[in-house]
Structure formats: C-alpha cells, structure tokens
C-alpha cells in the first residue's frame, strides 16, 4: 500500500465500508489429533456477542486505529498485496472480540478486514477465499461458516489441502441462552504453543472420531431442529468431556482457567449438562433454556466467582445464538446487508 495519495485528496468524500461480526463457541473436534483419514471436523455456534466492528476507506496516508490495530494492519496489507492494489487506507477498529479467549477473534478480524476490502474495491470475495489468503481456518471452519451465515454449524475438517467446508447448519432456538464466563487474567494457547499442543497430542482412533461425528449428526443437530434442549445439552457436554480429557495435558487441566472451571463445576453440580470451554479457552459457557433460567445460572455463577480466590473479576454475560452472518454496511456503495442465513 502506498503511503500517500494526491495532495488534494479529501477523505470525507471517500466511500466507507463497515463490517460487524460476532464471536463463536467451538465445542470441539471429532478428530482432535488431525491424524485420521478425516482429520479434525468440528461443531460450533455463532453468538450475538461480543462483536468485532471496523470501518475501512481510502485515505491520503495509511492509518489503522483501535484494538487489535497491528493485527488488522497485517491482514489489510496482505490482502491488498494479494490483489496488487496499491492504495492507502484508513482502517478504524472500533470494537474487537477478546483475543486468545477461545472465541475465534483472529478469524473474525481477518474476515471482517477482507470483506471490507472486497466491498470497497469492488471484488467478489467469499469468506473462504479471504480465509485462504489470510491463513485462517486451517483446522476448523466454524468461524468461516458463522461469519457467512451464523447458527449452529458443523464443518468437514480440511480435505486434500482445501479449507474445511460447511456440512450442516441449523438455527439456534431464539429463546435459548448461553451464559458466558470470561477470565481476563488468563488466555488460551496460541501460536507456537498451539502448534506444539497438536503435534505432541496422542493419535485418535477412527472409531472414536466416527462416533463423535455420528452423535452430532444424529442427536445434537436434530435436537436443535426440534428444540429438544436436554438432548442438545447432553451431546455438547459429551463432546466437551472428550475434548477436556484429550487436551488436559496441553492446557494444564480440563479447563484452561481454574477460576472458570470452579464456576462450571458449580453449575454442573446444580444439574447443568450443556457446559464447557470454547476452544482453548479460557472462556466457559453454560446453556439455559430460557432467559429466566439463564439469570438463575448467572446468580449461581456470580456467587461462586465472588467466593473463589481472585474470582470476583470474572466477567459473566448472558448471550443468545446468532442466526445471521456478518453485517456489511456502506452508504456510498450498497445498503446494509447480512451475508446470509441459509440452512444446509
């Protein structure tokens, strides 16, 4: 990207594209080792919070501001280089999903930057195309699928060098809720530590992989379609238990954050079955079948967090599932739109 444009350049006249996208929960892989004939493959859910929001426009000089600015600048530079477009841009990140929290912040930021760039430059860029250019989605396609359409999604895992493809998508019931438990003092594995965790993890059997996938396809997804809360929670809890046991040596226990773990164990003791840790954590979650039940779980979680040593600064939030994709808004180019919400 060039450092400057003409001296008379007026940024206020340039079209601006805004993109807003939300976090996702990653429930787990069917083959967490990535070594079977059908590696990885995963199940997850789009949430209605927290958000990443950004705005992109051409400018006289390169300027990237806001949370995750350095990361966003790298993504912008890389995708502009891929298309040999030599312009300066102003990129304002006004809100960002917490990083290294197990919520897919990096993928959502990359896709948001790429989508804004594509809309601004008149390029027809799909979310998988952006992910491929920016190096996202190598193991899991959950973040790509939720960016495109939201909902509860199942991906195939990578196949023959290609990114994971969407296998199934089911809307999440409107009245169900997810209690999110954030630990700002902890972070999940990333970078070299994440790579090492996968490289040193034990092999996973084909039978075990097939059994997990079958349970999601034949029980969890139909339970969502039929709004059978108990069965859905049973299956999420089962998948989470398998992932917790498998990755415990890499992340120091079933849960990355002992403080989040204490809250989740208290909820489990209260009878909650649909709970766990998203991806590498530390963010934990617990499902409720109504707003009232979510508020009851919130009260239990708050009491446990306040009583636990150093746990009072845990952040507890009630969220919904989100059944729409990212929002792209440009008053100068197109009207606001969602990428989609089509079931597969």
TrEMBL record:
Which Pfam family is one of this chain's hits?
GHMP_kinases_N
Q: Which SUPFAM superfamilies match?
A: Ribosomal protein S5 domain 2-like (SSF54211)
Q: Which PANTHER family match?
A: BETA-RIBOFURANOSYLPHENOL 5'-PHOSPHATE SYNTHASE, HOMOSERINE/4-DIPHOSPHOCYTIDYL-2-C-METHYL-D-ERYTHRITOL KINASE
Domain (GHMP kinase C-terminal): give its ranges. 221-303
- Organism classification: Bacteria, Pseudomonadati, Pseudomonadota, Alphaproteobacteria, Hyphomicrobiales
Protein's name in the database: Uncharacterized protein
Q: Which domain of life is it from?
A: Bacteria
Q: Name one GO molecular function term.
A: ATP binding
- Gene3D superfamilies on file: 3.30.230.10
Provide the alphabetized UniProt keywords: Kinase, Transferase
Which stretches make up the GHMP kinase N-terminal domain?
78-146
């Amino acid at each position: 990207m060039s450092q400057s444009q003409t001296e008379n350049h007026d940024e206020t006249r340039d079209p601006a594209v805004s993109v807003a996208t939300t976090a996702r929960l990653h429930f787990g892989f069917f083959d967490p080792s990535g070594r079977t004939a059908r590696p990885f493959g995963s199940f997850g859910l789009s949430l209605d919070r927290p958000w990443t929001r950004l705005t992109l426009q051409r400018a006289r000089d390169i300027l990237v501001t806001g949370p995750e600015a350095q990361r966003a600048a790298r993504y912008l530079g890389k995708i502009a280089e891929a298309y040999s477009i030599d312009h300066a841009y102003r990129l304002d990140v006004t809100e960002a999903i917490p990083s290294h929290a197990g919520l897919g912040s990096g993928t959502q930021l990359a896709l948001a930057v790429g989508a804004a760039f594509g809309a601004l430059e008149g390029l027809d860029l799909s979310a998988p195309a952006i992910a491929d250019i920016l190096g996202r989605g190598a193991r899991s396609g959950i973040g790509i699928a939720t960016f495109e359409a939201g909902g509860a999604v199942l991906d195939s895992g990578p196949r023959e060098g290609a990114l994971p493809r969407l296998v199934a998508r089911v809307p999440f019931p409107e009245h169900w809720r997810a209690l999110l438990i954030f630990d700002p003092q902890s972070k999940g594995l990333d970078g070299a530590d994440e790579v090492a965790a996968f490289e040193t993890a034990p092999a996973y059997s084909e039978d075990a992989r097939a059994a997990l996938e079958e349970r999601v396809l034949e029980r969890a997804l139909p339970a969502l379609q039929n709004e059978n809360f108990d069965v859905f929670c049973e299956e999420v809890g089962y998948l989470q238990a398998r992932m917790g046991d498998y990755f415990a040596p890499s992340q120091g226990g079933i849960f990355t954050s002992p403080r989040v773990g204490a809250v989740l164990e208290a909820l489990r003791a209260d009878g909650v079955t649909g709970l766990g840790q998203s991806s590498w954590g530390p963010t934990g979650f617990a499902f409720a079948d109504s707003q009232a039940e979510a508020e009851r779980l919130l009260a239990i979680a708050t009491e446990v967090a306040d009583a636990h040593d150093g746990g009072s600064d845990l952040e507890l939030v009630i969220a919904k599932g989100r059944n729409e994709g990212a929002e792209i808004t440009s008053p100068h180019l197109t009207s606001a739109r969602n990428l989609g919400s089509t079931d597969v």
